[in-house]
From TrEMBL:
Protein name from the UniProt record: Trehalose-6-phosphate synthase
Entry's family note: Belongs to the glycosyltransferase 20 family.
Lineage, uppermost ranks: Bacteria, Pseudomonadati, Pseudomonadota, Alphaproteobacteria, Acetobacterales
CDD domains: GT20_TPS
UniProt-listed InterPro entries: Glyco_trans_20
Organism the protein comes from: Gluconobacter cerevisiae
PANTHER family given in the database record: BCDNA.GH08860, TREHALOSE-6-PHOSPHATE SYNTHASE
Residues that span the membrane, as ranges: none
């Protein structure tokens, strides 16, 4: 078996290289334990002479991490403007937020050529290359153009829109042609698979597309939740709730997560079900991301205003309805808070998968599990039909679901939780990476 070459926009941060935390890092943990691996990506640094700077290397276990710098222009136009200002809103169906310019598109391809040039000198003939996510759509074709003949796989971690939406992107045909050079393209859900296939067919392109939903490591996360729930940090937070029930939401700041809609759903709960006033606290953890993008700054301003308005309207001197923080909280503490929560509140307007939903289920106390209120537009929803599925545009519907979750008896809660935990345990991070790589090898046998 040859080496596994992982390519992503960023490699795991140094702390995550020994203790995986992020979705991609956890997802690939099993794969990199069983074979020699090189993980290649941008360093996170910008320098005017980036092209002349050597790559940086760090060996951790079986993995050789190789990173390189970009210029400030490449960071601005490839990462901020095109990847996150064009492709991200397009793939999340938010076409009103797209800000396309030809120069940003050109630099997106320029940056992908940098990835290809940095990568090509590292490759050996029997390597298996696995490219990840929307930052690197054209990379497969660029590697083929440089003479790479071995297996190339691609996995898209975010949704992919139907032809009627995707066709709004100028030069979509060029982007899809580059992607079609990969031997296998993995996506999160059957809907994404159907959408991407339809776009390829619209241009007469042939490509192998397969839905391979990503999972988590439920055993280790569950153990982390059990230990964390009795830690000083979590006990201190729970004590401040003063006996109120806990609803928890955890998302990075992003307009795809349905955060303003979630606040309005909680507000509708307090309005329509006044018996919960003073009896429940909603904790929303929302670390700021992509602060340099205008739409994200505007979203934060909107959330700040909504939280203040709701707390002002319903709060009392001894009860704050919403506790809202944009400071990141450690994954171990979040695991303990999930376990202590009565309701997990997950409301994306569109999501590739949403591993928070799966982590919430993995963390629960089997004897007294909490209830998952989940958007039907999350990629996880088809795998978790036992959740209380909601439409985040329907505030009253969310309020009804929250009320049901807060008043559901333990027998019903356990039945729903056990079914979802069985699914979370079946489709894990390890099975995801194995299924994809096995499928890739079936399509393109070892040289």
């Amino acid at each position: 078996m040859g080496r596994l070459i992982i390519v992503s926009n960023r490699t795991p941060a140094p702390g995550e290289r020994t203790q995986p935390a992020g979705g991609l890092t956890v997802g690939l943990y099993d794969a990199v334990q069983t074979r020699e691996t090189v993980w290649v990506g941008w360093s996170g640094h910008q320098h005017a002479d980036a092209a002349d700077r050597p790559v940086q290397r760090e060996q951790v276990g079986n993995v050789n991490y190789v990173t390189f710098d970009l210029t400030q222009k490449q960071y601005d136009r490839f990462y901020l403007n095109f990847s996150n200002g064009v492709l991200w809103p397009l793939c999340h169906y938010r076409t009103n937020l797209i800000r396309y310019t030809r120069e940003d598109c050109d630099v997106y391809y320029e940056a992908n050529r940098v990835f290809a040039d940095r990568l090509i000198s590292l490759l050996e003939p029997d390597d298996t290359i696995w490219i990840h996510d929307y930052h690197l759509f054209p990379l497969g074709q660029m590697l083929r153009d440089r003479g790479v003949t071995g297996r190339i796989g691609f996995f898209l971690h975010i949704p992919f829109p139907p032809w009627s939406v995707a066709r709004l992107l100028p030069k979509l045909d060029m982007l899809l042609t580059g992607l079609a050079a990969c031997d296998l393209i993995g996506v999160q859900t059957p809907e994404d698979e159907s959408n991407l296939r339809g776009c390829f067919e619209a241009y007469g392109l042939k490509a192998a597309v397969k839905a391979v939903p990503i999972g988590i490591d439920p055993v280790s996360f569950r153990q982390q939740a059990i230990e964390s729930a009795v830690s000083d940090e979590v006990v201190k937070i729970v004590d401040t709730l003063e006996g109120t029930r806990l609803i928890i939401g955890v998302d990075r700041l992003d307009y795809s997560k349905g955060l303003p809609e979630r606040m309005k759903g909680f507000e509708a709960l307090l309005k329509n079900y006044p018996e919960h006033r003073g009896q429940v606290t909603f904790l929303q953890v929302t670390p700021v991301s992509r602060g340099g993008v205008e739409s994200y700054r505007l979203l934060k301003e909107e959330l700040d205003g909504l939280v203040g308005t709701i707390n002002g309207a319903y709060g009392t001197p001894d009860w704050v309805p919403i506790r809202y923080t944009t400071w990141p909280i450690g994954r171990d503490i979040l695991a303990g808070l999930y376990r202590m929560a009565d309701v997990g509140f997950v409301t994306p307007l569109r999501d590739g998968m949403n591993l928070v939903a799966k982590e919430f289920i993995a963390a629960q106390d089997e004897e007294d599990p909490g209830v998952l209120v989940l958007s039907r537009f999350a990629g996880a929803a088809p795998e978790m039909p036992e959740a209380l599925l909601i439409n985040p545009l329907d505030a009253e519907g969310m309020a009804d679901a929250l009320h049901i979750g807060l008043t559901m008896d333990v027998k019903a809660r356990h039945a729903a939780w056990s079914a979802m935990y069985e699914e979370v345990s079946r489709n894990t991070a390890g099975s995801w990476s194995k299924q994809f790589l096995d499928s890739l090898e079936e399509i393109r046998p070892c040289p």
